[in-house]
Write a structure and sequence with these properties.
Elements: E1 2-10, E2 16-25, E3 30-34, H1 41-46, E4 56-61, E5 64-65, H2 74-78, E6 81-84, H3 96-105, H4 111-124, H5 140-152, E7 158-162, H6 170-185, E8 189-193, H7 197-202, E9 206-211, E10 214-219
Parallel strand pairs: 3-8, 3-9, 6-7, 7-8
Antiparallel strand pairs: 1-2, 1-4, 4-5, 9-10
Helix pairs in contact: 3-4, 3-5, 4-5
């Protein structure tokens, strides 16, 4: 599903965020990406959906080499990738329904399919009854659920999440993790960068630890491995 071969990423300020990464993530896996702040975790996952471009090396996502991909082809790559952010990134001028529908409108799905699919994913995240509400009328946990619904609206093969519980209280974080577990159980590959030690150590999955742009640990059913 995702394969990196000798991937390097050097920023213009000289920071080496990826220093020869080699990793394979198989279809249906659930992978935590952990490490200290500034270790290269966010760069690692941003390169998967071509928000960042590798300086050297190859990254295959769904058998597409994303590095040399022309900019106009990036939206086609992202049709098979859902992305969930720490700060939700909902469009405040749109209703809950419209926020989720937007992901399908940009790929020109017919209105009937959009309506059915939006209500299906809102039902999955438990917020079908709030379809007509605005984002600022929702709690943080509800906004993150909408963000997740939007990320899976077009049935992507991969969901990439960058600190999806970072702005949430502990109880809500567990609810969000249960939702990710459900999505993963349906066959979607999930790659999640997180600082949440308790979640990683409780809901065991593969753990990739990154430090100074290097993969220092890659364990099945691994532990967080850092203090705090």
């Amino acid at each position: 599903m995702i394969q990196m071969k000798q991937v390097y990423k050097k920023y213009s300020n000289g920071v080496m965020a990826a220093n020869g990464l080699n990793v394979t993530i198989n279809p249906g896996e659930f992978v935590y990406v952990v490490g200290p702040s500034g270790a290269g975790k966010t760069t690692f996952i941003k390169m998967m959906y071509r928000e960042e471009k590798p300086t050297k090396g190859s990254i295959l996502v769904n058998n597409v080499d994303v590095g040399p991909l022309k900019r106009k082809r990036v939206p086609f790559l992202r049709r098979n990738i859902g992305v969930v952010f720490q700060d939700f990134k909902l469009l405040n001028r749109l209703t809950v329904f419209e926020n989720v529908a937007f992901a399908l409108e940009v790929i020109e799905e017919p209105p009937k399919i959009i309506k059915d699919r939006v209500m299906e994913v809102l039902d999955l995240v438990g917020l079908k009854h709030k379809a007509r509400m605005m984002p600022d009328e929702l709690s943080g946990g509800e906004q993150q659920r909408i963000s997740i619904a939007r990320s899976i609206a077009n049935r992507p093969k991969i969901v990439i999440a960058d600190e999806p519980t970072g702005n949430l209280d502990p109880e809500t974080s567990w609810e969000i993790m249960n939702l990710f577990e459900e999505i993963n159980s349906r066959g979607t590959t999930i790659v999640m960068a997180t600082h949440n030690r308790e979640i990683v150590n409780t809901i065991r999955h593969r753990v990739i630890a990154i430090e100074n742009g290097l993969i220092v640990r890659d364990e099945q059913r691994g532990e967080y491995g850092y203090e705090g």
